[in-house]
């Protein structure tokens, strides 16, 4: 059932001006029965002015009278042609003023890391216009030199599930077109859940890259046949012994 406009204020008016049961009012405004009881006790919606649903074309007096006569009757919202299609509003989503300055950074992030997304998809994700997206794609934006790419999910401009859904939709469209994708493009088209579930590939540090086959042993067979001379500490540091007779002769000559 559709929810009436200004539901809490409508509930306040129905509590003050009708003899409807709390359950009937709660079902009509889609609130909990205890909240309606709290409104009647003055604990909930204090200071809220009642919103007349009859004057505002949401209920008829005959509908209220019928519900007051039958406690099991459920109120039906009056059909309003002006509200038809309101939930299917098109165009970019509304972005709060406090987050609008973050949109260029999020657009640059999406353009850089998910170039497969169309301008329409980017527009729906972060709530922007296609000329702005095109200017950032072509790097003709007036502030492009100061913009740093930031994940729109981290900025709170969209949900991770919405971003994953857009990426998967772009991947399916690209696969249907039959275009060849590079490995980097395939990795970008993987959703967050799939990427987190993948096993990490072992990588060689860049500092030792290219030394995988390096060994300390020589490859010449002639070197392997030569005997290896072992030098111990005593033979290296001990000096040769002098004969005592030679020392005596030297003293006699002096």
Automatic annotation (TrEMBL):
It comes from the Bacteria. Residues 242-254 have a biased composition (Acidic residues). Residues 215-254 are annotated as: Disordered. This is DUF1013 domain-containing protein. The lineage of its organism: Bacteria, Pseudomonadati, Pseudomonadota, Alphaproteobacteria, Rhodobacterales.
